[in-house]
Design brief:
This protein is of the alpha/beta class. It has 15 helices and nine strands. A nine-stranded mixed β-sheet has the order 1-9-8-7-6-4-5-3-2, sandwiched between helices. Mean pLDDT is 89; it is low at 1-37.
């Protein structure tokens, strides 16, 4: 998903219904910002001095805490790296009042939900989103990253996943034993995104192996396996369990960690649940069980899981995309619809017998229908079962399964209060339902949707690298244990 370039957006205005009132000032503002370079994808690599490593011997960070306690201590040391303006960030416990109910997050930050999608109301959030979101996949060769090698990770007898892997080396240039962090793209994403490349390089430079993976239906994986369709997390969660197991079988890999952005953050959170869930879970329909990978009791992503800008109420986003969104009035949703339309054309869903020509061309609901019914999950209730599997918060009377209560690895959710796509209130709503010390959350005043490197680069890299530090990062604890 990438924010509109004005020339692209303008070409869509005649087709997409929009209000003329207020459009011209927003268009003028957008054009001005584009001229200044604020709304294009930009690289934000780690720079000398960006990584502030915490010390277990200082008062700032006692060693080996649960995720929630670790975040409190780490934030104390890293908070000076944030821009000084705005309301203070919210940590896990700050999101809940004395009665255990979620607080009003937007009120805390002085924001109004209706302003978050508008250039006039959320210029900073939209700019940071655009700089880090990346572009749609249009085919072609895999990108070349210096120091990274293309790999195909075997998942099962039907599919392997493409990735770019970089190895940490010792002073002699030899591959060393280290943890490997897996990096996931956003929805329908790929490896040719600056955010992914910059983060992978930062991991390798600081002593980690890094694997940027392309899931089924994404990038090079989709090009090799065009008949293996994307199921938005239902089957991909098992795929990522296989990736972790393949990596830990490599002699140079000690543990695995996982980090995802946007829909990739949802994938990451599903992995935290899948790793720790019981054999039988209310979120898994008996109809779905035969299609899932047999469980083997192994541990996955023990180095921890980070989720940046997850779309926790994704079904509400699906609802919002059932109608055309104007590029000026709703630039992020409108651009997401362009991504969906591009996907429909790329996969030739418009030639599929189940294609609905009457549906909104940017409908995510219909795209999910098309992908599921062309995948191996093509039984009558597959979409409903898939949404049930992926749900993190209740929706229209449908339960979520309290998934993150099952997480047994450290998990950290990071959200921007001014996110124009996924409301930060959803994070507080989730935390109020999850009394698990392994699951921590941080809501920052800025960063938009996945735009944290543009918002506060030193804090962004320092938070990530310290979280995955094998000596200083959080430890997994029993859900009932105290620090």
């Amino acid at each position: 998903m990438h924010l509109y370039q004005i020339t692209h957006a303008a070409s869509l205005f005649p087709r997409r219904a929009q209000s003329a009132a207020g459009a011209a000032p927003n268009l003028l503002l957008a054009a001005t910002l584009l001229t200044a370079g604020c709304f294009g994808e930009t690289s934000h690599p780690i720079r000398p001095g960006d990584y502030h490593r915490l010390s277990a011997n200082s008062d700032s960070l006692p060693a080996r805490l649960s995720a929630r306690s670790w975040l409190r201590q780490a934030h104390r040391a890293l908070a000076p790296l944030l821009p000084p303006e705005g309301a203070p960030p919210l940590l896990t416990e700050d999101m809940i009042d004395s009665n255990g109910r979620p607080i009003d997050v937007l009120k805390h930050f002085g924001l109004r939900r209706g302003d978050l999608e508008k250039l006039s109301g959320n210029c900073s959030g939209l700019s940071h989103t655009a700089q880090l979101a990346g572009s749609d996949f249009v085919g072609g060769a895999a990108p070349h990253w210096p120091g990274f090698d293309p790999v195909w990770v075997p998942v099962n007898d039907r599919i392997s996943l493409f990735g770019l892997m970089g190895h940490a080396v010792n002073e002699r240039g030899e591959t060393r034993e280290a943890d490997c962090i897996v990096i996931l793209p956003g929805i329908l994403g790929h490896t040719d995104i600056s955010r992914t490349r910059d983060l992978a390089a930062a991991f390798v430079q600081n002593g980690y192996h890094a694997l940027a993976i392309e899931l089924r239906g994404h990038g090079q994986t989709d090009m090799r396996y065009p008949d293996v369709y994307y199921t938005f997390g239902t089957l991909e969660t098992d795929d990522l369990m296989a990736v972790s197991e393949w990596l830990t079988a490599q002699p140079q890999v000690r543990r695995t960690g996982l980090i995802g952005f946007c829909w990739g953050a949802n994938h990451a959170l599903l992995c935290a649940w899948e790793d720790g869930r019981p054999e039988h879970h209310a979120s898994i329909s008996p109809r779905l069980v035969p299609y899932l990978r047999p469980r083997n009791g192994r541990r996955h992503y023990e180095a921890g899981i980070m989720a940046f800008s997850p779309t926790l109420r994704f079904e509400e986003i699906i609802d919002g995309l059932d109608v055309d969104r104007a590029g000026v009035e709703y630039p992020v949703q409108a651009n997401l619809q362009v991504t969906i339309e591009t996907r429909v054309a790329h996969k030739r869903h418009d030639r599929f017998s189940g294609f609905d020509a009457r549906a909104c061309p940017g409908s995510l609901r219909k795209l999910i229908d098309y992908e599921f019914t062309r995948s191996e999950l093509k039984y009558p209730e597959c979409v409903a079962d898939g949404l049930r599997f992926m749900r993190f918060l209740p929706y229209n009377g449908l339960e979520d399964g309290w998934k993150l209560r099952d997480a047994r690895v450290p998990v950290l959710i990071v959200q921007g209060a001014n996110d124009p796509l996924a409301c930060a209130q959803d994070v507080a709503d989730l935390i109020a339902r999850c009394n698990n010390p392994n699951v921590a959350a941080l809501i920052l005043p800025g960063g938009g949707h996945v735009g944290f490197a543009a918002y506060a680069r030193p804090c962004y890299f320092s938070l990530i690298l310290n979280f995955f530090d094998p000596g200083l990062g959080p430890r997994a604890v029993s859900s009932f244990a105290a620090d």
